[in-house]
Amino acid sequence: MKRPVTIDVPIALLLALSCPPTFAHHSFAAEFDANKPLKVTGAVTKLEWQNPHTWFYVDVKDDKGELTNWGFELASPNLLLRNGWTKSTLKVGDLVTVEAFQAKNGTRNANARAVTLNATGKSLLAGSSGGAGNGP
Amino acid sequence: MKLFSLVAIATLIGVTHHVSAQWAKIPDAGLKRTAAGEVDLAGSTPMKRGKPDLSGIWLPDKEPLPKQMITVEGDMPFPHFFFNFMADVKEGGGQMRPETAAALQQKMALGGAGEPAAHCRPTGMPVLATGILPFKIVQAENEILILYEENTVFRQIFLDGRKPVEDAEPRWLGYSSAKWEGNELVVETTGFNDRGFLDAIGHSHSDKLRLTERIRRKDAGHLETQVTVDDPAYTKPITYTIKSTLRPDEDLLEYFCADNEKDVQHFQ
Question: Residue B29: inside a domain, yes or no?
Fold first, then answer.
């Protein structure tokens, strides 16, 4: 019997070179650049507590002192809710500091990694809990 | 393709995270509890009409991300077979046919932009059963329903003696029928389209995919699903086991992807 022709792909190598997709909607690599970190402070102007991703918007002063509005993506509200967020965790007018990775396409959008409420110093992970716990 | 910024990822470590009560949890009257009110996850398997009762809300077990990975959801853990359904297959075994391997490499080069879920389409099976959102099993006498929070989709698993449909209308999640073998529910699913992904990195399947799931509720709180993927795109069937844990007193939430989908316009 003729042995079938096959190719073995070193998946571990491919994973090391590629940002794999995530299940909760889309991959990091399709939209954001891990080599373009961003850290900004500003006031929240809008919150979209909706699937597949929560988005919030912040007015940020640019280099010329002018206000620009940035959009920041969070995990889905379903995941955030199970990690202690509510639709009131971020409110319009809150002053926040956001650490994020910028969109590849150069628009003022970014994937938020950590959000700090400046009034209290409270830090909130943008996604789900770190660590190896089983619960969302 | 650039490697990720490990420095950037490292900045995430150490960010404290406050977990508080999420929503009013209503105790499930159908679960046995200790005197303290806790559900004993290691307790005996609940039975219904002489068979294990698989009903409940379940969440696939998770593990930390490999260090080089980065996801939209931060550093949260993911289930073992979510990214790669062949994670435990020894490389070099020649399981993928050349065209299957080439298709995978093409998809990975796109960085996930072609993933069905990214376009609010169903991701497919069996990756749906290894996700980060819970699913609910509802067990009736002649039918079992699995409700998946991801994309608010469902599967109907017929338990009335019907055979798998070999030439079904192509479906994302297939056509499922099942029978009991002892205390295991054996689910056979055929009738797939060829557009779904077997896992998140994009292992493809054909419309000849035959999926076998052997579902066993080990005890009150633990579900094991042995999955066998049998598809001409692979040279031999591939079998692995998904472990899930009961989420007592939890609810499924809505997840309508089109509600606020705005990522695709940013893809490059």
Answer: no
Number of residues written out for chain A: 136
Beta-sheet pairing, A32-48 with A55-61: antiparallel
The alpha-carbon gap from A64 to the nearest alpha carbon of chain B, in Å, equals 26
Token pair of B238 as six digits: 């591939």
Beta strands in chain A (DSSP E): 32-48, 55-61, 67-73, 95-103, 109-117, 122-125
> Could you tell me if B63 and A132 are in contact, meaning their C-beta atoms sit under 8 angstroms apart?
yes
ipTM score here?
Answer: 0.80
| pLDDT tens-place string over residues B174-183 | 999 999 999 9
Cβ of B73 and A79 within 8 Å?
Answer: yes
Of A7, A75, A124, the CB nearest to B72: A75
Greater model confidence, B118 or B268: B118
Predicted structure pTM score: 0.83
Query: Do the domain assignments include residue B51?
Result: yes
Contacts of B264 in chain A (CB under 8 A): 26
d(CA B268, CA B254) in angstroms, rounded, equals 29
B213 domain-assigned: yes
Please judge whether A129 and B84 are an interchain contact, meaning their C-beta atoms are less than 8 angstroms apart: no
For residue B138, is it within any domain?
yes
Q: How many residues does chain B have?
A: 268
Q: What's the confidence (pLDDT) of residue B75?
A: 67
CATH of the domain spanning A30-125: 2.40.50.140
Q: Provide the residue type at B43 as one letter.
A: G
Q: Which residues of A touch B111 (CB under 8 A)?
A: 18-19, 21, 27, 29-30
Residue numbers of the domain that contains B129: 47-266
B178: exposed, middle or buried (Cβ count in 10 Å: 0-12, 13-18, 19+): buried
